[in-house]
Specification:
By secondary structure, the chain is of the alpha/beta class. The chain contains five helices and seven strands. The radius of gyration is 14 Å and the shape is globular. It binds flavin mononucleotide. Flavin mononucleotide binds next to helix 1, strand 3 and strand 5. Flavin mononucleotide (FMN) binds next to helix 1, strand 3 and strand 5.
């Protein structure tokens, strides 16, 4: 009998396209072949420190605005960083960025914060850059599936 693990998805989805990406990540993570992973989705505004302390892996989704992660995504780190620093070292995580133009500033910033937290980046960052493409949806679904499957298999 395996204890269920929890995958938390903290995702900022301010537009129809980003809602589609969020739904795709959730769909992948909830793949019917995965039975031992609880998938919890929270918006940045509703994220509290304890949400991650009780999770086993994290996916962060954000837009890039003005060369940086969305303000609401940054706010999660501003509010939770100190408590996570103590209690979430080694946390496996992945992230995706919807970037209409670029994405590099957001990628660099999230990697830097995660290094400070001693989180483990277990997937190549997914940057959905440029004009919106259907392949972004597939890539997000793959990201969710891969994280949930890896968690269930005990390899992250
Ligand atoms: C005020 C503003 C600033 C933006 N700045 C950036 C930016 O610095 N880099 C980038 O890649 N995209 C930028 N974008 C585009 C957003 O990333 C994009 O519109 C958002 O992710 C939503 O995606 P969607 O338009 O496909 O719904 C900006 C958009 C707005 C409205």
């Amino acid at each position: 009998m395996h204890t269920k693990k929890t995958l938390i998805i903290i995702s900022h989805a301010p537009s129809n396209n980003t809602k589609r990406l969020q739904e795709a990540v959730v769909k992948g993570a909830k793949n019917s072949e995965i039975s031992n992973v609880n998938v919890k989705i929270v918006s940045p505004l509703d994220t509290r420190g304890d949400d991650i302390k009780s999770a086993h892996a994290v996916i962060i989704g954000t837009t890039e605005n003005l060369g940086y992660m969305a303000g609401l995504t940054k706010d999660v780190f501003d509010r939770c960083y100190n408590s996570w620093l103590e209690q979430t070292q080694g946390m496996p995580f992945a992230f995706y960025v919807r970037a209409g133009l670029d994405g590099t500033g957001t990628k660099r910033a999230i990697e830097s914060i995660a290094t400070g937290l001693r989180w483990r980046l277990v997937q190549e960052p997914l940057i959905c850059r440029g004009e919106f493409k259907e392949e972004f949806v597939t890539q997000c679904e793959d990201l969710g599936l891969s994280m949930a499957a890896s968690l269930e298999a005990g390899i992250i």
